[in-house]
Give the backbone structure.
Amino acid sequence: MATVAETHQEENAAPPVRRPTGISRRSRWVRRAPLLPALIFTIVITQVPFLITMGISSLQWNPQKPGDKSFLGLGDYTSFVGFDNYKTVFTDERLRSAVINTITLTVGTVAISLLLGLGLAVLLDRKFPGRGLARTLLIAPFLIMPVASALLWKHALYNPTYGLFNGTINAVWKLFGADHGPTIDFVSSYPMPSVIAALVWQWTPFMMLILLAGLQAQPTDILEAARVDGAGGVKIFRYITLPHMRQYIELSTLLGAIYIVQQFDAVFSITQGGPGSATTNLPYEIYLTTFSKLEYGEASAAGVVTVIGTIVVATFALRVVSSLFREEHS
């Protein structure tokens, strides 16, 4: 009976009264108004060019063979071809090779930079004399302009005549009585590893900074409790630190993948896409299609595919990293 009475009282109870928040819709829009110029500016500089690029990708447009139709006053194109340029992108052998090179370059650079950055972040998270100086020196490569960094690796390190690597190899050979050591042309013999090494050198500090922020945000009481319970350094890192670093690793992977997919400076400065097309990635192939072949429609289609591919790669990378951590928790 008591249960029936309680149920009856609940049914007759008055609906909850929604308390006024004190902020009207007009007030909320007034508060948001200062952000509108930034929002409009972001849309104008990001979405409008992308829409124009999508429009150009549907055209047969070569300035050496101008047609009689104007596209927004930017130039004359021959005809509307729909998705034919996208078919060319997916069937052209050079573009397929560029896609594979882009994936190799991105995955290799991000994975190695992430591992090295994590190791350096763990090192810098400990107190030792000169830690501030070491941190500043380790960050320095990321502050160098990308083109300057690529030229530094090409001429000061990789050059077979006066480069540091061949000079070191020759010096070591002479220590064992040889007249001279082997001369290695790193750029010609190992083009893709050469580009990846230069990018890893520049992007490792970026990963290190994000991961170091994550390490320094760990709750110290939990670490102390684990040590009191007898947990060693390896177990603390595997079961406490690594799960805590999940968001930071995801962020590093996402940002690194987005930036490396767009990499142009290192490929152009070190190998110029060669030998042959061994290091030609999508941005460099788009550059060649635009300024050498002058096929604006085809280059725009490749650009749209690159943007969509970047989104897919970033989403896939995030899902993989998240699934790994979910398995670790389960």
User: Anything to note?
Assistant: The longest strand covers residues 59-60.
